Amino acid sequence: MPKRVLIQLDCDPQPGTFDAVVAVDAGADVLLRQGGVTPENVVPLVHGAMFTRGGSDLASTAIFIGGGDVAAAEAVAAEVRKTFFGPVRVGVLVDPSGANTTAAAAVVSAARHVDFATGAVSAVVLGGTGPVGQRVARLLAGKGVHVMLASRSLSRAEEAVARLHEQVAAATIEAVASAAGGEAASPFSRGVANADVIVAAGAAGVTLLDAAGRAAAGKARVLIDLNAVPPAGIAGVAAADKARADGAAVCYGPLGVGGLKMKIHRAAVERIFTDSAAFLDAEDLLAIGASLG
Question: What pTM value is reported for the model?
């Protein structure tokens, strides 16, 4: 059997080392890393993956699309998808900034404690305009959850919500401006007070829900903080928390979610090496995560 070759197409000038290490640990024998990838220059790189092997050997080549700019990665992914034809294709994993695997792991973790199928679940996504926050909001909305996407910039939140409405037609998502310790009557504060699920997905080292906000989140059944750099994104949530009970809520920190994220990533890499038709985006990764139990 030929060696498994994973081609890392990164939209950043320098491909990320985190993605490279995960790719090798997930089962790639050879990792080829290409930075500065754009929709304009990606087609020859894809052709190199498509035409160097034939027959069943083609399944031993796969593509990973990454980078810090999610919109740029999505544009590259769209061009990659258009380049394939018939059976001449390779498996593809789209995971810029680890946003899709992290978001999938967060939503799977929340689903262990909240039944989204009831249609009466509300969630607040803090730092919702970032790459992970947008994916968390999109996956929750796809499950019928009423999502409040919060950002310090209302205009950025509104732009993100507009994009999400295009991606999830039936989504119920609203944009709000957030502020720690905000006015009790503000839309943000009311949303926090009524949320079943709160996910902090903002910049590293920034507290998005302080102690007062945490105390106001009286209905919350799940609190997930994806920030791995102190201070915590949600006051009182520790990095290693994994379904730790805290009053009426359970808490997950970045390490508590991170184990599942890595399992999803490894399973996804295995999938793209066994199914050349696989084109794994956020929703596909969510399904993989749910199947892992």
Answer: 0.93
